Amino acid sequence: MTDTTIDTVQSGTAAILRIHGEITGGSDPELMAAYAKASAATRSIVVDFGDLEYMNSGGIGLLVTLLVRTQRAGQKLLAIGLTEHYRQILGLTRLDEAISIHDDEASALAAAI
Amino acid sequence: MTATEPRTPRDQESWARPTDRLTTTAKSTGVDTVTGKRVTGPIQGFGQMWQKTFKVRLDDVALDPEAVVAHWKAGFPTFWPKGATFYAPLAGITPGEVALLEVPPVPGSPVKMSTGVMVLYADRESFTFMTPEGHALSAWITFSSFKEGGVTVAQAQALERTSDPFIELTYILGANKMNDRFWEQTLENLASSLGVAAPSVTSVKVCVDKRRQWRYVRNLRHSPLVSMPLSVVTAPLRWFRRRRSA
After folding, report:
1. What is the pTM of this model?
2. Which of A69, B181, B239, B240 is 20 to 30 A from B66, alpha carbon to alpha carbon?
3. Is A92 in Cβ contact with B16 (below 8 Å)?
4. Chain A: nearest CA to B230, how far in angstroms?
5. What's the burial of B70, exposed, middle or buried (CB within 10 Å: 0-12/13-18/19+)?
6. Could you report the predicted ipTM of this complex, rounded to two decimals?
7. For A2-23, what is each residue's pLDDT tens digit?
8. What angle, rounded to 10 degrees, do the helices at B65-74 and B176-193 form?
9. Which of A50, A53, A61 sits opposite B4 (nearest CB)?
């Protein structure tokens, strides 16, 4: 049982996954269920980390799994709401080479088109 | 509205600080092939992406998961299979530290492959290594302990790709199973050190991504299968230089 909730909001051909709480290796069911709620026409997945409170290395592993799934589906993966700390972690792990990071939702949705 | 206000998350101290090039305080008897290299993860590797999970039950061990992880960190080099050496950094397994390794490319080989790992993440329940350029794998490997059905278990979980086509070929030809056996033996040794009489390691291997990433074929320039023979050939020259400077 993890302290994670993830809402999925559809915005045109983009689906926004808003993470609340924490992301750990145990958050796999919540993250994949949120991803599955995206409509079939979704071309981009935007992950909103604005309400993220905690992430360990298992959580980073989950993001890789999500990345592989989106790539397999021909979708882009974008990130918003990252604090400096989590932005540094995506840089350290070199996930920022595959996930497009944006300052806000508007710029992410513009890039998602 | 997205919140991006600065705040101190409770995982802040568990992660390594950002770094562009690696440095280490560890001292090995081999060649330091790590200093100056960048870290790599499953995103930057060449081969298929695998998630491998190895788990051992610590039946009748009175330690809680945090104590198991503390024991694992403190004695990490001693749990490795014979023939492989882990040179811990001076500060131990703490975020950002870099350890050096010497591992035989095949069991019984007199030649050792020199490489290393950076401690990407460490807390009281787990720690994660990330490999540098020149390592056979582009990987994150997480060591953890937790309760499962009332029993403490220890787990090693790797998310990995082979780094380049040469290594991918060796994995297809059998190195993959050797790598699996390495972690199984490590967990057996850990469990034995805690008093488990006949440790039984279970493993689950999932191919997360079947595709090979040809855009990372250039990783060949760091390949240990290229640098290791070169290192062997030039060993007498290094030995001669060390003698002259002594």
Report:
1. 0.90
2. B181
3. yes
4. 29
5. middle
6. 0.92
7. 689 999 999 999 999 999 999 9
8. 110
9. A50
